[in-house]
Amino acid sequence: MSRRFERGYRAVFGIHAGGLIRLISVASMIIIPTVVLHEIGLGLQFSAAVSLFYLLTSLILTLATMRIVGVGSFKMYYAIVGIVMVESVIIDSVMSIIERKPIVMAGTLASLVPLSMVVSLLKDPIGVRPTTGYLTDLTLLLAITVLLQLPIYLILDSLTHVYINMIKVIYLDLTLLIVSILIMLMLIMIHKVSGTLSYLKMFGAFIYTMITGDGSFMEFHLLKSSRDANVKIHVVHLKGGGDDAFVVVPYVHTGPISHVGGADFIPLLVKAAKSIKARVIYLHGVGGHEVDPASYDDTVSIVSSIRQAMVKLRLGNHSHVIKAKPIMTVESGDVRLLSIPIANGKNLVFVSRLKKSMDDIPTHVYNEVVKRLGSDVSRLIIIDSQNSFSSDNTWNDEDINDLINGLKRILDTPDEEGELRVKVSHIPRSKIPGSFMEIGDNGVYVMTITFNDERAALVIIDGNNIKPTLADEIRRRLREEGYIAEVATTDNHQYTGFFGKIGYRVVGDGVSQGDLIRLILDTVKGGETEDTEVSYMEFENKVHVVGSDGFYGITRAASSAIKLLPLHASLLFLAPIVLSIVATYLILH
């Protein structure tokens, strides 16, 4: 996912952004009108009354918007209304100073487009309404605003000695109504010309999903641009001692956002494993958001096929002695690899980065690996360790060469035959302080593996990447215990997009790092590896995946929106201010 895309989401919907906007808007509505109107000669009590009227209007507009849309919280809408009211206060104050008369809520009539746009998008998350629907919503909000505005003029006219020409006020209102409609039409036209109107409607479905938890409308948009794909799935059964565990590596991506597509993949997989009284270790295979399941039904289909594979493997033949590549680490340029024998002729290969962020191995990267290394690469189950969160998660030609060269060194290493000994331990999320919205349903798994006198420890955290410093410290502490160690997260997207918390919350942001490390070390020290029998299955499942035209289409639209940001800002903020001031001056002066 584009880091710029994530940062944009954080800026707009970050946990503190809405509260700050509401605070600024309330302060502006109280202070600015009181000071300005008193300065032009209106009594202090009347100036304060106008300020209170702005507050009352903001509350009524918020409640009216909630009523019109039917979904969403008061806080969310009040933050948007607050932006409108601050702009209105600025416009009204400037014109009041110029005219030396109280101008009230003229700016609101020219500033309602952002609020109206949100209303229109949320009323129609499928995106089938014509342009007239946007204008209808805007006109309704304008009518509500006029009905709120006129009484304050009548009150001021009757209680003060300031003469206010109501005919001119009505002319001004009609002019500003037309200004708002023209601004809305311009915005829609810009999106049509730039080819991003469909993504604007998809964004409405995205917001709808975030505030309701209903991902069906977002999936409707994703399915329209989805493609059929045969996704590869690796399943390993580990049986020994007290262990009855499965390692699952699907070459799909568990996204894109909470409640949509594959975001429920891991919770559903955990439930499927519990239904057959087994534990499951999910590892992030190859693929970025282009291989997100496009719908919940596609996710259920994949999980159901995995459950069937688990049942078959449990009843099938198992091997205690396997022949595979040894436990080994390889560094190649910016790529670090850890190879773990897991079944006869099969190795897990954990891919990490030394400098860049380890966040997804896109399909095109894997395709290049297969092209260059041929069928031999099928011996390796490639794992995206997802264990280093930073600003750059790209794969250029040099990075791909580093990955291919590292994998080739593993493939060129002779096979070894030996007994596989594994110990699987689980740390429930409930035992980890500060794990809320940071660690998913599957908690933390610790696997210790012994093969031909080499020992490795794998820490798999059900989370959405991890702070590099925390991952480094876990590896360092495990090396002190005599293990070749690696840390991986699942990239679960279980919480990505919760309203108010959009964007990644990586492991280490809030979780108690000291407690997490202590729990991991206690688990590793808690017992030796056990004789283990393994069985392995690889299969494909045909499902709809998002494809490059789906989720990445949104990121392209976001990039386009960034380029058009000056124009959008001019239309939404600068144009209303300038046009309102000009219209007010021409009509009222």
Report on this model:
With 589 residues, the chain is α+β, with helices and mostly antiparallel strands. The chain has 2 domains: 3-215 and 550-588, no CATH class; 227-545, no CATH class. The chain has 18 helices and 14 strands. It has helices at residues 3-13, 17-39, 44-69, 74-99, 106-110, 113-123, 131-159, 166-194, 197-212, 216-224, 265-275, 296-315, 363-373, 397-412, 468-480, 513-524, 551-563, 565-588; strands spanning 227-240, 243-250, 279-282, 321-324, 328-332, 335-343, 346-353, 380-384, 416-427, 439-451, 454-463, 484-489, 530-531, 533-545. Strands 4, 9, 10, 11, 12 and 13 form a 6-stranded mixed sheet that branches. Helix 3 packs antiparallel against helix 7, helix 6 (113-123) packs across helix 7 (131-159) and helix 13 crosses helix 14 (397-412). It is elongated and about 100 Å long. The chain starts with a helix and ends with a helix. Mean pLDDT is 89; it is low at 7-16 and 499-503.
Q: Can I get a quick summary?
A:
With 589 residues, the protein is an alpha+beta fold. Helix content is 52%, strand content 19%.
Give the key terms:
4-stranded mixed beta sheet, 6-stranded mixed beta sheet, 2 domains, 589 residues, alpha+beta
